[in-house]
Amino acid sequence: MSKDSLAHPSDILRPRHVGSPIKRTEDPRLLTGSGEYTADRKPDRALHVAFRRSEQSHARILRIDTTAAQAVPGVVAVLTAENVADDFKPVIPFSRMPNYYATPIVPLASGKVRYVGEAVVAVIATSRYLAEDALELIEIDYEPLGAVARAERAAAKDAPLLHEEAGTNVLISREFKKGDAAADMKASTVRVSGRFEMTRKAPLAMEPRSYTAEYDAKRRAITLYTSSNIPGIVRDAISESLDLPGNRLRVIAPDVGGSFGSKGSLYPEELFMCIAARKLGRSLRWTADRLEDVSSSSQAFAEVVEAEMGFDRDGHAVTLQADVIGDVGAYSIYPWTCGLETVQVVSFLPGPYKIGSYRGAVRGVATSKPPTGPYRGVGRPISTFVTERLMDMGAKALGLDPLEIRRRNLVRAEEFPYRIASGIIWDKTGFIECLDAVAGAADYAGLRAQQLDARKGGRLFGIGLATYAELTGIGSRIAVAPGMPINTGSETAKIRIDATGSITAAFGVASHGQGLETTLAQIIADDLGARFEDIRVIQGDSDAVPMSTGTYASRSAVLGGGAAKHASRLLREKIRRVASHLLEANQDDIEIENGIARVGGTDRMVTFKQISKAVYSDMKTLPVDAREELEASYTYDPINGTTACATHLAVVEVDPVSCFVRIHKYVVAEDCGRIINPMIVDGQVHGGVAQGIGAALYEELIYDDEGQLLTASLVDYVIPSAPEVPLMDVVHIESESAVAGGFRGMGEGGTIGAPAAIANAIADALLPLDIEVSILPMTPERIFRLMEQASLKAKGKTDD
């Protein structure tokens, strides 16, 4: 069904909500403390859970003694892996990919531990305080098996194996090829290369992970409240693991205080809460403290990329080669597998550029650290960092301006759809338009003149560009994670008008702070012809629609919005049919707007409330065959999804004494298709860039060689605060996509473009010192060491 197949001439008469900066309907409750998060749930006689976590990064469990803990007053149960072994089946993050090993997911460590922070024993007590106290009384003996905290070391043949049954620590390997990259590289006029790295990050959502399992003894059923953005996927996985029918397991994601991807996977603790609630016949609560959240939630990035790009004499990129090693941590995640981040790095490395030949190889290596998982941008922050650094390095070698080299290599409007060297197909979007828009908005020529003056004064002043493309709202033809057999390419909307004329719309998508209650209601208001204030949006509830997955991969506007448009139009036709009876008019003459159906060109009208009363309550108004339930459902699949893109520009200055980086100016030109709510889009861009600034300059999880986390608190793990985040200029390029509504996803873009733009700006600032940037974050310490090395190198040349 095409996006316009249900269109009607009266559509143009309705007031438009899509495109308007409507204030978020969520904000009043969230800002006044009236929201309900998982930790706010207080079921009757609920027990509290605390986890004893491993202090060892890789060790065999020899003995667990829980005798003293069980004797503590108020402790109801102390459970180990052995105690729950018969209560579930392991969850397997399976995939059709070759050269992949799926590590089983279990609620508690069994036999051995594989990272510091892995849950080993659970204490269940009448209060969290008592449970925490009892943890200290548990005795665990370990036999160290040798840490494998570095991916390069873990990939070696003689490295200790985290999963002996896999026979290797390389859990996934993949290679992409197009043409003869080696021959093209040899023939290139200019070759630039480097070893690039983005270190581990913590997603660090405002709300730590939190789960409440409410047990219903009458039905022997469980309702799991979870701070998750994939409640439907969690329901299906736990239902199968516990052999519990879906109508006895309900999973609800209430208000969620951020995710950034970390709440987009099934966790062992979610599995445990349901197992223990059923085992004990009691409701259970658990909320991670910040230490637990940092050390046991999935983490981000941790890739090293050795890459080389070849150019011809005119500055056209001829070829690209890359070898990637990804540190995937101790386990593969469900449902995305450990190929989610790693494989997408090599998939997206060619970016929005016309690169002739390509070879990209990746290995995802298990290490004795927490698993890596989804993080805003998934694979693209580092692939963009690498490709954009190589573009700048190529410009430097060829004597071209960084803006010009991108203009020569970007895919142009007449070349879409374009298949890049890794096989990804970009649909028509504004690559060149974003580049030109950011240059104009920032006064690029003026900035270069300003830079010349700054350098004359000895200032380290730099300008950085980064252009990227991403697939958003992808449908059933493309798996979110390579080889994953779970369908995450469709979304369902169910919209109904009740007997009072009020509208309730249920979706499978799950908001974690991005304003979906508002944007989805805006779409429905336009396509149904309803009043915005009459619409209630339900989301994040596995019972709301037959099949729900959640929110990830910038899919909510494209898939949720597409489903909303189609379901709204189906329901509008029902309203038009009923109204034609009530108004004794031809159905085609009925116009619907603002909750009113009227006969075009007259003052004869009925409200939605009158229509619903006629359908549900007043049995004499309508003939029997004209009464149809005022409800519509639609499952939308965009098949391929769509492409979003942006160009980021950063202007920075490096203090030569403190080595701190100050961002003077930041401009984004992005194309997310037709904008639903400009205020929300701007907020997403601002938040994403702030997060990208953290990845570029501050945030780093540092592990020692024994797998011990050295930055486990917010004292040591630094994130940008308000003074470090500059004011931003955002330019919107609204090229409508081919999917319903013309929408494109855009929630991840800030974290994709910002690290690369800032890295290029720092490299440009340090250009007089002949310093290249190849690792992020560029902390003051790293900049100091690079400047020190450059100084010693310069002195050595002088001495010669």
From TrEMBL:
For whether the record's keyword set contains Isomerase, the answer is no
A UniProt-annotated Pfam family: MoCoBD_2
Q: Say yes or no: keyword Oxidoreductase present.
A: yes
Q: Which domain of life is it from?
A: Bacteria
Q: Where is the composition biased (Basic and acidic residues)?
A: 1-14
Sequence ranges assigned to domain Aldehyde oxidase/xanthine dehydrogenase a/b hammerhead in this UniProt record:
32-146
Protein known as: Carbon-monoxide dehydrogenase large subunit
Please give the InterPro entries that the UniProt record associates with this protein.
Ald_Oxase/Xan_DH_a/b (IPR000674), Ald_Oxase/Xan_DH_a/b_sf (IPR036856), Ald_Oxase/xanthine_DH-like (IPR016208), AldOxase/xan_DH_MoCoBD1 (IPR008274), AldOxase/xan_DH_MoCoBD2 (IPR046867), AldOxase/xan_DH_Mopterin-bd_sf (IPR037165)
Q: Which organism is it from?
A: Bradyrhizobium canariense
- The segments labelled Disordered in the record are 1-37
Q: Which UniProt keywords apply?
A: Molybdenum, Oxidoreductase
Give the molecular function GO annotations.
iron ion binding; oxidoreductase activity
